[in-house]
Amino acid sequence: TSFNLLLLPGDGIGTEIMAEVKRVIDWFGARGVASFEYEHDLVGGSAYDAHGKAVSEATMAKALAADAVIFGAVGGPKWDGVPYDVRPEAALLRLRKDLALFANLRPAICYPALADASSLKRELVEGLDILIVRELTGGVYFGEPKEIVTLENGQKRAVDTQLYTSPEIERIARVAFDLARARNKRVASAEKRNVMKSGVLWNQIVTRVGKEEYADVALEHVLADNCAMQLVRRPKQYDVIVTDNLFGDILSDVAAMLTGSLGMLPSASLGAPDATTGRRKALYEPVHGSAPDIAGKGIANPIAMIASFGMALRYSFGLVAEADLLDRAIAGVLAKGLRTADIATAGTTPCGTTAMGDAIIAE
Ligand code: NAI
Ligand code: MG
Fold first, then answer.
1. Which fold has domain 129-258?
2. Which residues does the record give as NAD(+) binding sites (predicted)?
């Protein structure tokens, strides 16, 4: 099989960490696992400098045609003054919207070797492996009306609208249940049905989809605020958590801090399956940004970026054994004590971006 990738390194450390991913892709390609064809393009500030837009129409066409987009990071102080609609970060919003990437997957994995870097005690996080599935294209971030109005008495009123339709909830529920089937067959659905109508509908639809289509998967409902508390109290009780756009934003950041460094966290954003091929549009990216403070120094941690490609192996290419192999290589390198500066412990000498890439490939 042949897969066609669009690599968008972006700005800052984006180019440095993408160089390591390319070597990993080539490693798998050279072993005949699959044929990976890839093309590069500009995105973010570098694209703005070249064509005055954070993502060009030609790049968008390539992204729409690709089997997966592998995205680095965008932004930096150089572009702080550019107009809002062409700022580097606008590229990601455009990609998410045009590729209709409604499902955001954020794993929170705590490697035993890094458990002491967690915000929690080692015993609470060691071996943690949870997956947060966040609805990404609906809810209060997009619902209309969305405005600030001045009332007759001079006061102001701000309105955001939390809006979900049943098909939007059904499709994100199916993504979560499908993922759970390939893991430990447990889903926790987080909403606030006690105070929000959208929470009532969310609860009803997820319950129905679970009962009718995924009777083999255990479903639990949890109020989103309680979920935040439980993530900090006893995170290993969860496996897959499915939730809406706003709660997912918050819960995934809470989960991120359980695992240690920002430089370790991958993510995937998936669209609907194509009617004929069954393949989903997808974009894979690290959770972190372009880290202007360390850009150009060769010290960025490439693991979040490499693990994002691992998610592409797993979720876009169906290469599960290869994805597992890559995860084991990352865990193995960490177990041997290799650390980039962001995850280094006192008394150890940190390695650079390329040395970390070398070590993962060797492992
Ligand atoms: P950031 O994630 O770029 O950096 C936060 C801190 O974490 C910095 O101290 C940085 O050095 C460190 N860090 C991040 N990734 C690292 C890695 N792989 N290895 C080692 N250390 C790492 O967030 P910040 O500073 O708030 O934003 C910088 C720029 O990135 C801004 O222009 C922002 O808009 C943009 N950004 C872009 C995102 C994206 O492309 N998806 C996401 C978040 C921010
Ligand atoms: Mg956030």
1. Isopropylmalate Dehydrogenase (3.40.718)
2. 76-89, 289-301
Tokens representing 29 are 């390609």
244 annotated as a binding-site residue:
no
253 Cα to the center of ligand 2, angstroms: 6
Q: Indicate if 129-258 has the same CATH topology as 1-104+261-363.
A: yes
**Extended beta strands in 11-64, E state:** 35-40
Phi and psi of 218, rounded to 5°?
-75, 130
295 in a known ligand binding site: yes
Q: 1-104+261-363 in CATH: which number? A: 3.40.718.10
Name all residues whose Cβ lies below 6 A of ligand 1: 13, 73-76, 89, 92, 262-263, 285, 288-294, 300-301, 304, 342
Contact 17, 65 (CB under 8 A): no
What is the number of the ligand 1 atom nearest to the C-alpha of 10?
40
* Local structure of 329: helix, strand or coil: helix
Query: Which residue(s) pair with 241 in the sheet?
Result: 132, 188
How far is residue 25's CA from residue 23's CA, in Å, rounded to a whole number?
5
Copy the structure tokens of residue 53. Answer: 């837009």
For the chain, domain boundaries = 1-104+261-363, 129-258
Which atom, in ligand 1's list, is nearest to the CA of 300?
19
Catalytic site includes residue 141: yes
